[in-house]
UniProtKB/TrEMBL annotation:
<dbReference type="InterPro" id="IPR003594">
    <property type="entry name" value="HATPase_dom"/>
</dbReference>
<dbReference type="GO" id="GO:0005524">
    <property type="term" value="F:ATP binding"/>
</dbReference>
<keyword id="KW-1003">Cell membrane</keyword>
<dbReference type="Pfam" id="PF00512">
    <property type="entry name" value="HisKA"/>
</dbReference>
<keyword id="KW-0597">Phosphoprotein</keyword>
<keyword id="KW-1133">Transmembrane helix</keyword>
<dbReference type="InterPro" id="IPR050351">
    <property type="entry name" value="BphY/WalK/GraS-like"/>
</dbReference>
<keyword id="KW-0472">Membrane</keyword>
<dbReference type="InterPro" id="IPR036097">
    <property type="entry name" value="HisK_dim/P_sf"/>
</dbReference>
<dbReference type="InterPro" id="IPR036890">
    <property type="entry name" value="HATPase_C_sf"/>
</dbReference>
<dbReference type="GO" id="GO:0004721">
    <property type="term" value="F:phosphoprotein phosphatase activity"/>
</dbReference>
<dbReference type="GO" id="GO:0005886">
    <property type="term" value="C:plasma membrane"/>
</dbReference>
<keyword id="KW-0812">Transmembrane</keyword>
<dbReference type="InterPro" id="IPR005467">
    <property type="entry name" value="His_kinase_dom"/>
</dbReference>
<dbReference type="InterPro" id="IPR014310">
    <property type="entry name" value="Sig_transdc_His_kinase_PhoR"/>
</dbReference>
<dbReference type="InterPro" id="IPR004358">
    <property type="entry name" value="Sig_transdc_His_kin-like_C"/>
</dbReference>
<keyword id="KW-0067">ATP-binding</keyword>
Amino acid sequence: MYEPYPTPQVKPEQQKYRYSSLWEYAKYDIKVLFFILLITGLIGLGINHLILCLSIGFTIFISFHFYALYVVNQWISHRSYDAPPNLNGIWGALLFNIYRAQRQERIVQADMVGLIARAQESLFALGEAVVLTDELHQIEWWNAAAERLLNINQQDKGRNILGILRQPSFVDYFHNMEQYPDGVKLNSSVYEDHHVQIKLTRFGMESRLLVAYDVTRVHNLEQMRKDFVDNISHELRTPLTVLSGYLETFTDQDDFNPRWKRAFDQMQSQTRRMNALVNDLLLLSRLENDRQVAKNQIVDMPSLMTQLFDDAQAYNTDYGHMLNLDIDSHCDLIGSDTELASAFGNLITNAIKYTPRGGSGAITIGWHDDQENGYFTVQDNGIGIDLKHLPRLTERFYRVDSARSRHTGGTGLGLAIVKHVLMQHNAHLEIESEANKGSCFKAIFPKDRLCQSETP
């Protein structure tokens, strides 16, 4: 516990000028010098050796100052924690100010030590593991939770963190932190069937702060959700196929009663919608399960864009929009052609569906690059989206207008699929939109996903 240092014992005559100006401090020394020179001058006049006596007086004055300098040096070198010696004049003021500055610094240091101690106590009380590494990636400090979750012990101090957490996914995350904004999830090396989420923060030159916490329960719940969606989607496919087949059989009969036509048309429409929903759920499940699969095919972008444009024209038959294709890049993409085609197709289909019919709709599909990034764009002049909805558009089942989505037959999963596909290609989606003026969806791919096309 911090105890204040004793205040220096000073003479009353010193106390009155120590907080005055430097000139006030120097007055005492000038008076002493004048007094010594006066005495030695009178003696010199008496013995007829004025210059000699004045020199001796000045030497005595300088000797006093050398002695004071010796006292100051001794105090600074050996006893600076004690109260300063009582000296008059400038040297006394210098000692007092040095001591006061040291005392204030010690108070600040003591406060900092107390604050650091409280911070360490707080970190020790955390359930999350906290580890500090230096510029050489060697472990400097850790809390109790790090011993429990990461199996770090006293023998590991000074060891390289990569020598302890050696899983390839963590090593890749450690060297490419910017590619893992949410950190990385690892299998626990301490407890079987446990999972730990790790997040790194860089500070200083190359020092890092590691925070890890147990996400086993969240992982299990997420896995249960995925298994449920996957299983229920597979189970629904068979009855939906049967229903769809019987509905088509009934409506194709020559003696089919026209009174039932509207009801059967609605049943067929809802069956197709449920089939689309099941297919999208299965696709999302596959994307989540195959996220570690290498996406290293060379996708011929002019060919893919032409195919997407042809599909869009076929889909556009009932809408009558003006479709445009704009390709000004000679770069191909490195990735999965089927996944990219699915993502791009979703963006195009959405633009067609949410642009009102009437002959004034215009949709432009584009592929561009600027030597740094590749851009797949879909721009329309449709109904647009209010700004408040943009941050949540890629969430599953999020709908700007539920009634409109039901009317267009949307599943609410299209943009979620787009987001997952782009994430697995190190890309991201940017959305620019304004209500009643149209939207622009832009998929941005990094330079390392581009390759020069072999065809001119």
